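Hello again, I could really use a second opinion on something today. I've been staring at a protein lately and its backbone has me curious. Can you walk me through what the tokens say about the fold? Take your time with it, there's no hurry, and the full record follows here:
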Amino acid sequence: MSVTSGMNAIAHAAEGLYAQDSNPVMNLMAEEGIRALAQALPAIRQSADDVKARGDALYGAWLCGTVLGNVGMALHHKRCHTLGGSFNLPHAEVHTVVLPQAMAFKAEAVPDAMSRMARALGTTDQVSAAAALFDLARDNGAPVALKDIGMQAADVDRAADIGVSNPYWNPRSSATARAALPTSSALSMALPSRPISWR
């Protein structure tokens, strides 16, 4: 629960880095929130009663929540709200699974946000922010595939249809938004290395 809750918080900061109404202060808070959580979650997984790591996670979650309260969210949150609200999938786990894939999909449209995220995650030039998010989740025992949290293959086309109705803003063209929504190939998600077409 701690890892998926932390990944959920990171999602708020990640989307804040490319929000339409973002600003330099929110960007600083988002990057620091991601950094704090990325460092705290492995320590918490190793020792659940690590008070310092819990404090660092609380600090990171507060920063990420503050970002959420001050800027708008985008396509990642639309995907998660569709999957959670329409298919009764668990909230934090949905964010955990979708976040790396959403970031891979948007990466080329928001390179500055991806650079800031990669720096916060402590990645090298050879590892994308999306891949680092995937690794953070997987390496700390969190689910990384929709099928692992209850998504059924029979529901993926309906999820895509719901997801493109009343869309949220997206830094990539709205014409590509359906490609970012889950279909059968998204049920078993793999390590993202580039934007993924799911259609």
The helical segments are 2-16, 24-46, 51-70, 75-87, 91-106, 111-121, 129-139, 156-164. The chain has one domain: 2-186. The first helix runs from residue 2 to 16. The chain is about 60% helix and 0% strand.
